[in-house]
Amino acid sequence: MPQTDRRQNRAEKPEKETPASPKPVSPFDKAPVVSRSTVTVGGKQVRYAVHTGVMPMRDDQGEDEAGIFYMAYIREDAAKGADRPLMFSFNGGPGSASLWLHLGALGPRRVETLEDSLSPPPYKVIDNEYTWLDDTDLVFIDPVGTGFSKPKTAEVGKKYWGLEGDVRSIGEFIRLFLTRFQRWSSPLFIVGESYGTTRAAGLAGRLIDRGIALNGIVLVSSILNFQTARFCRGNDLPYVLFLPTYAATAWYHGKLAPELQADLKAALAEAEAFAAGPYSEALARGDRLTADERADMVRRVARYTGLSEEYIDETDLRVQIHRFCKELLRREKRSVGRLDSRFKGIDALAATEYPDHDPAMTVIMPPYTSAFNAYVRGELKYETDEVYNVLGTGIKSPWDWGSAGNGYPDTSEALRSAFSKNPHMKVFVASGYYDLATPYFATEYTLSHMGLDPEVRGNISTGEYRAGHMMYVHADSLAALKADVSRFLREALPAASKQEG
Asked: No. of H helices and E strands in the chain?
């Protein structure tokens, strides 16, 4: 009997192939968890879906290297579908998650807080009758290193943790969202707060160069040109631009002369005229001031800041922000907030040069952090044990300012360029009178020094509120901001969309 060819047997009875291992699901590309709810706005019920997920950021080889966490609120009872306005929202820092605008002003749920003090725990979210969702769908973005957004490694994170890398990644997120949610035909808006306004201006310039034109931008507590806020030798600009907010703060705490205490806006108008005129000129003259001129200037600066003439003289007419926060209420053994100077803090010692902490941040940090974590895991059913990095804790390297690090970062030119390429774009700027982080007078200075063509200057509108950096923690300001933004969105929409609405 002939011997059987083993190779032939193997050919006739091939060994069972081992199935290929399934490709692991990327932690940087998660399908959103979808939940549904309703909110009543202006007496009408708004039905919406919330998409909570992670969008991948990929390297040049197409490999996932980071994930951006987002929460998208899509109105479901609107008739316009993909043509409905869409707004992307983010906060600042750099290093801040998006929960402040999200649960403070824009979203259909907001944190319940007291206006002038820390709310007692436990904290909760309530329906937001001032949500912007009746006017536009909303997407809240946590840049890499904030919220649940993270890079593959800290080394990879460095490409995202800088002025240019940050703008680039958020621009890519917007492109991906428009693609995955089929929203390329929607009127587009972005809203940023604080450093988020720096990002928004940079995005406006980047997106238009990539074929994505914005209908409008909302800048909340804006800073585009950092020269307006950097207190350093040789740069007198911040001293001039912060003085009206010093006056507003002193007015709120009853530290101005009786004739200035009568009316806030009248006092601010007088302070602004002094700051832009005599005060600016005096600082420019430096040591060339005569003794009489200097004495007169000391008296006038003291008048508008609520500080003593001795202190103004000792600081050489130049009061740095943190020193002001400490000095105004020193005799009461209190300091005032930087983010919102209405709030008062208690330091260990009254004799120190700077406050121990920002009492405004102390008031809002616990409620927002606790309420958000309960909301996203409870109501929205987004399951994760990861830490939600609220402010700064997820950024693992110094922020890269690029070439601007040698001077003053400034994205106002990117915004000017976007205006020149897209003259239909509108911008609304919201500022708080008691904001000592990004003063309203500094914002006005930046807007008036952008070199805008007269044809588009009218595309910018502004609103001022009797609150601070996060003006929406003040009930009246929250309502006023909602009304102003609703009007702005209607005016920024193309004619066809207005007719459909």
From this structure: 18, 14
DSSP state of 391: B
Q: Which amino acid is at 8?
A: Q
Q: How far apart are CA 215 and CA 189, in angstroms?
A: 6
Residues 217, 260, single domain; the answer is no
Co-location of 81 and 48 in the same domain:
yes
Q: Is residue 4 part of a domain?
A: no
The domain in which residue 372 lies consists of: 30-227+366-500
Q: Do 285 and 396 have their domain in common?
A: no
> pLDDT tens digits, residue range 248-281?
999 999 999 999 999 999 999 999 999 999 999 9
Residue 248 located in a structural domain:
yes
337 and 243 fall within a common domain: yes
What residues form DSSP beta bridges with 52? 33, 71
| Beta strand pairing call for 30-41 and 44-58 | antiparallel
Q: Are residues 388 and 290 in the same domain?
A: no
Is there a contact between 428 and 218 (Cβ–Cβ < 8 Å)? yes
Residues 104, 125: Cα–Cα separation, whole Å: 10
DSSP state, 448? H
Query: How far, in Å, CA of 251 to CA of 231, rounded?
Result: 23
- What the block records as the tokens of 437 is 């982080």
Residue 144 belongs to a domain with what CATH number? 3.40.50.1820
- Based on the fold, state whether residues 374 and 316 are members of the same structural domain: no
- Total domains, the chain: 2
1 part of a folded domain: no
Query: Which of these, 234, 184, 219, 205, lies nearest to 84 by C-alpha position?
Result: 184
CA distance 125 to 362: 18
Residues 103/212, Cβ–Cβ less than 8 Å: no
Backbone angles phi, psi at 462, to 5 degrees: -135, 160
pLDDT of 181 higher than 80 = yes
Residue 203, sorted as left (phi over 0), alpha (psi -120 to 50) or beta, turns out to be alpha
> What's the chain's length in residues?
501
Residue pair 245/268 in contact by the 8 Å Cβ criterion: no
Q: Is 80 exceeded by the pLDDT of residue 207?
A: yes
Could you say which of 360, 391, 418 is where a domain stops? 360
- Helix (H) / strand (E) element for 138: namely strand 137-142
Residue where one domain finishes, among candidates 360, 377, 395: 360
Contacts for 429 with CB less than 8 Å, ≥ 6 apart = 218, 219, 222, 443, 447, 460, 461, 462, 463
The reply to whether 72 and 182 lie within a common domain is yes
Q: How far apart are CA 357 and CA 339, in angstroms?
A: 11
479 and 445 within one domain: yes
Model confidence over 396-417: pLDDT tens digits? 999 999 876 668 999 999 999 9
DSSP E strand boundaries for 215-266: 216-222
In a domain, 415, yes or no: yes
Whole-number Å distance between alpha carbons of 419 and 425 = 7
Phi, psi of 63 (to 5 degrees): -90, 140
